[in-house]
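Pasting as-is:
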Amino acid sequence: MSEQEVGGAPDTETRGERISYWSIATVSWLAHRLPTRTGRMLFAWAGAIAYHLAPGPRGVVSANQARVLGRPVGDPMVVASTKEAFRLYGRYWFDAFHVVDWTDERMRRDFVFEGLEHVRAALEAGRGALCVLPHMGNWDAGGRAMVAQGFETVTVAEELRPRRLFELFLRERESFGVEVIGLSDGGRVGRRLATALAANKVAALVADRDLTGRGIPVEMFGAPRRLPAGPALLALSSGAPILVCGVYQRAEGWRCVIGPLADVARTGEKRRDVEAITAAMAVGFEDVISAAPPDWHMFQPAWEE
């Protein structure tokens, strides 16, 4: 009898995938049971330990922080920023699952918005709102906070392996009202997002990584990289405005700053317009990341060396 037949892990999972699943499942279990202050302290401490025990990720984060700060990797400011990035990332994992159990009232109290009027104005116009953000602060808490504000919210998620790990994240996010579209939907992702915008919903997209290899070349912090073309394409096809968001951790919660994308003149040539909109998005991301570099949870190489 196989593991799948008895309700365990599928036979196709690798050992590493099983470890990943049970690690995150344990994080979820703890986050639903520990008090807020205790959980945040323990997970921030775990992040600080990981800084010392994980030289590979430490090198990646150091390189990313150095690029943002414009200083060498060994510079004391870069070292301090990298250490703080690990500590904040540890807390991110606790909070991402912990906020599932929060009431809307508590969410509205501890997740402070600046610029929420831009979202309301977009929805009043009736074409939906495209909220784009880097991997900052806590984007899961951001989705929870949008729902607490009364906005119907949809997002796109990278499909993790093993499949049951993705399903764990899916259950957690959908339990507080966020509609999640998996990237494996392929060509249907754009159509489903377009449908959501046509229904005057908020599409919240973490858009600082190109997962397809076919993204738009941009410059960020003085070096070339790629960003996904999806937000620009959706904005052009739907008429929904793009709003750039930065989420920052605070002692008791988070602060989210929302602002409209810089005006981009439309030429009528799709490719040129997509490139111009995406370049403006890159500038917006530079601004929100520069405000608090350690809050940028970019634990993959952000630039090609």
